[in-house]
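agent: user wants the structure for FAD-dependent oxidoreductase from Mesorhizobium dulcispinae. delegating to structure tool.
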Amino acid sequence: MPAAFSDPIWRKPKTVPAFQSELSSGGALDAIIVGGGIMGLSTALHAARAGLSVQVLEAGAIGQGASGLNGGQVIPGLKYDPEWLIEHFGAERGEALVDFAASTADAVFDLIRDEQLAVPFTRKGWIQAAHTETALKAAANRDRQWQARGADVSLLSQSEIAAMTGAKGYLGGWLDRRAGVIDPLSYTLELARVAAGSGAKIAEQQKVVKLAKEAGLWRVSTQGGTELRAKSVVLATNAYTDGLLPGLARTIVPLHSFQIATAPLPAELAASILPGGQAVSDSRRILVYYRKSADGRLVLGGRGSMALPSSASDWTHLERALLRLYPALAGIAIEKRWFGRVAMTPDHLPHLHEPEKCLLAVVGCQGRGVGLMSALGKRMASYLASGDARQLPFPLSPIRPIPFHAFRQIGVAATITWYRMLDAFER
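agent: tool returned. relaying tokens verbatim.
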């Protein structure tokens, strides 16, 4: 695929350190973390600060995967509302999970503040925009539940959402002021920097190809021939999960999230589009999400094809969505197009697995990965340090491959096409 068809807006600073040579030597480590995205790096940072010896092994480069390619929306909560979580998980665990879900955006913005991370960010909230009466009722129900827990949230009328977004076609919506936006690549790279500064070893270009347990320790082998030993292993590969742990890759459906960015908006347009700096996700079956970047571009993303893109036309559906929302942008150039891989679980919840003692795996971000994985990494580090499963917000569950997994992806692609057509009728 030509490089022009994967050209993200986010750019590595020239001063980014290289981690290629940061391999541990000597005896057994406390933990090896496979995957240098937000989940892996957050776990490494907090585990190192808890006094554990930690090695991160990243198959590519730090920030190369979805952690550095996403839209940078930092959204608290989960796909499900508090009452559902309590009903599904029971009163004690459900309430604890609601509290955890409420804290995930804080985990990001507190870290940026406390560590003085060089990460462009704005914390002005996130709007869930409703384009149907059904979506508006769901927003009112969500608002009622979070208001009862003291969250800084509110419903938006049709006139309020029009003023806050400048977009056309919404009946109302919901504003969560706990949320915000960041530059996700800068955040991922800064997580790596502070994790390394706290004692974690980080090695890029180290693809793990084999795990084996010997004499109570895990032996981790890389494609380049390196072998390391550790008491615990954490697989933090999410949508890039392969056959390293049997069955794990078949518990998720990997999807592509495509994004576009306009040229910097002229002042008169910038003043009318998201003037308060909020992020937005809409209520369509195949939703789009958008925000303004630090340099004044409008960045919009949504589901793309299951196949890898081969030309600029693979982003056409996003350009149509952009003009549906903002007809005034018809003359503004689309300067950047890129994509990343995300993971969907059948129940739309993160899954935590421990198929063997001290072998852990986490999959499933469900569109909230920046905050969710930052907060979950801290809890995972506490579990590594204490062995107390109560530190984990989600229960450990068995690995359950999706039946007929090979056909599930075909079905998802067909469903995306069908939902996109239904969405078009609801303009």
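agent: one observation worth passing along. The first helix runs from residue 38 to 49.
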